[in-house]
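Example complex used in Figure S2.
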Amino acid sequence: MTDQTVKVSSKLEPSSEQQVASEQQASSETLVQIRGLYKKFNISGDFLDQLKFKGGKIVREQEFVHAINGVNLDIQKGEALCVVGESGCGKSTVARTVMGLITPTAGTISYRGERIDDLNDKQLLPYRKKMQMIFQNPYASLNPRMTIGQTLEEPVRLHNPDWSAQQVRDKVHEVMFSVGIDPSWGERFAHEFSGGQRQRISIARALAVDPEFIVADEPISALDVSIQAQVLNLLMDAQEKRNLTYLFITHDLAVVEHFGTRVAVMYLGTLCELATTKTLFAKPRHPYTQALMSAIPRLEDDRPPHIKLQGEVPTPVNLPSGCVFHGRCPYANERCKQEIPQLITTEEGGQVACHGVEEGRL
Amino acid sequence: MTMSIQNKPTPVAPEKAPNAWQRFKETHVWHSFLKDRVAQLSFTIFMGYVLMALFAPMIAPFDPYDATQMDIMNSELPPSWNEDEGDPQFWLGTDAQGRDLWSTILYGTRISLTIGICAVLLQATIGIIIGLIAGYRGGRVDSILMRFADVQLSFSTMMVAIVVLAIFQASFGTALYQDLAMIMLVLVIGIAEWPQYARTIRASVLAEKRKEYVDAARVMGLGQIRIMFRHILPNTLSPILVISTVQVANAIISEASLSFLGLGMPVSQPSLGSLISSGFEYIFSGAWWITVIPGLVLIVLVLVMNLLGDWLRDVLNPKLYKG
Amino acid sequence: MPLLEVKNLDVSFGLRSGEIKALRNINFTLERGERLGLVGESGAGKSVLGFSILNLIAKPGRISAGEIYFEGRNLAELSPEELRSVRGNRISMIFQDPMMTLNPVLTIGQQMIECLQAHRKINKDNARTIAVQKLKQVQIPSPETRIDQYPHELSGGMRQRVVIAIGLLMDPDIIIADEPTTALDVTIQAEIMELMVELCERNNVALILITHDLGVVSQVTQKALVMYAGRVIEQGPTREIINDAQHPYTQGLMNALPQMAIPGQRLNQIRGAMPGLQSIPTGCAFNPRCDYVVEACTKQLPGYTVSGNCQVACHMVADMKKAQQAPEEVSS
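Predicted assembly (1017 residues):
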């Protein structure tokens, strides 16, 4: 720790082989496929609230929050796909839609080629065993009236109805042990644990049914720095041991750089850039990605000044026309204001939705 | 400012998890109970009432339902501390039919409490189920159920009760009515007041539903019924407890009012309300005790229940002590 | 004479389980125009320290020992009247949640004018002019129209700017900012932090920045205090602490950052968690989590060792320094 700069600059090299290896493995099989996903939330209240008196007539008016606006995403087996973006960009909505907690307005979600977005609760049950979720707030994601033993036994029992009580108990002990929680603490309630321990228990609950795919929605953002490292390490251990695939939602690019195989950057419900972590951090192409990366608080004192964006994120109620980012983009032209950019593949192998990149002016 | 010093993690955990009683002794409820004199006094008095009601047949010197123990010659005897006319046998005096007032009050308390508690159990069952469904399902189901509750609330409890009981009495006769009075009172008060529960439960279900543990249960694949009853319901118990104490008090008052109006318990099986009512005609002839003593008993009972309810609300309302 | 001097400050909380010390023996000084960072994890006592400077600790907390001098005057000896004029007038505070400062039913202008009139004899029009000028200073576009808006009409970043503008209204000498950007997005956080540095420099205002984010501290402050379990374990110039942390906890905190690890490899975690204030271990509070622990650490509270320009509360600082001078590093 005496020589910070050496560490920082050398950290990219040893990882390259590993990165390549995981990329090759990743391209082999698509686990989750998201196609043309749209989600809008009606925020105009119930029927009576929607009636407005305008120009001498009563009209029905509805307002929508456009949370996701046409997202296509493939999650490859064995990878950790990170979705980054600022609050309100729709990254959590994507996660919750994939998990079936929200029904999409349009578009499809497939798991190993089977469509799952139109299934009912009962039909979804076999997929619940394969797909699990870890939540952001460790203080709200555990039922305060249940002991952690009960919390962990519940999914095991539900998905393995023919197991004996002893088998269930063994399984619970195994997962508790694997996340570093002493199994003898099973009779305690969630409030008797610290935030980091609770997040471990949440992870144990997700692992208890032996899933192959885990959606993690900001799993470490509510934790302290030293605990964040512990939980992140735990997630990486679990990935290695259990051969997991992650969809990792976060706002923290530093974590992405460390954890992710590929990164998807979202802005106002659309995907603006998708690339392997290495490519993205070496050469971000989309102006928004560039601004986002320059804003990460760094320890070094010789960091480049951050790129200032004009204005604020527009509300997702009235989406801007054309490229959703054009109002804040320093490179926007007439075309950006009118035409919605599509994802194009760059020479580095990433995908960018930007007219500027397409035209070669960026 | 928020300073969460109370709920810091305990890194060194004792070997064995504490049992329920040890946990309870660590709770905020227990600690504030130890500090609050009013709550302690109210609780003691309330327990006194409950014991009186439970053991009425053993405590009471006479059986007020047994006509053979009544003697019309003993009617309207004043309390025994009135040395001129009182009879030491009847320390609170007797009523117009010569029943020992003390025994009648004991049995009356028993009936009043039973009706109050049973009516509230009925209210709670209906209200909790409707509130849970409305809050959890939301949307149209919610709108319909809650409009239904609003309609119910817009009739006053007394009006509904009077109309229903009067019609029942008129069409099935007083004799049958007197047999079924207790069940009828429970049904009428229970059904008239369920929206109180439904609204409270719905509000806390809406708050709980947004918490991530509910999403976690859905992701696990649990059914709606299990999520509602196993996961959400236990987390709405605090408000249920608070309104229950107040609602029992309200139900007792409703019953007393109905009895006072002659639509409640028959004179042969008097509750506190019908006892007050039966003594009312004699109040101006000097026999004040038949009305005043059961009246005081009723007032104290309702008062302590309301005090307990207030205290519970203060203690269980997290905004008041955590903020 | 330093602008602010905190001497041997102890803060205790009387709980039903007994009295616990939330802060133990805090000493630091702040010069005019200096930017100081209070770093630590949740529960380390950094917010308590921020509040106690203004003597704003809520019951059951109280300052149980020590003094706080503002321009040489002991704040504890001031009358409530004088204390009020220091608070808000000379020292202002910015909170994590802007809605803690803003009243949702008043327009921004009404709140700012009211605040000005409470502290100064000034008429409405002049107050409004000052308010507009302050809003301009925090780079709010078209402040003349924004001033008549309600807080809910503004975005999170704008609200925090308004709060900063309110903090600047009385031209204070010190601004205490408690996690001012934690609730905001990174791009907005960067802008607000840059703005605060600029404002402090231009107006020669001292800043006490309370945060858990080492990156923010590194960019904004000149001096830093690292806190652990109610105690300052390391203090000194920010650059020196960031580049050459002495205390094993500070080192651990820094190494735990994802930037410090090789991508795809395990992060260098610190084991365990910070103890609750009721169960602080004897000796050095960090000893159960420390890799360099020796017997003295479990028995004796370490005093402050001066190392370079830093003060470090660790028994092993001298030994570690020696080990570092040897060619190989020991920490890994």
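Chain B has a mean pLDDT of 82. DSSP finds 15 helices and no strands in chain B.
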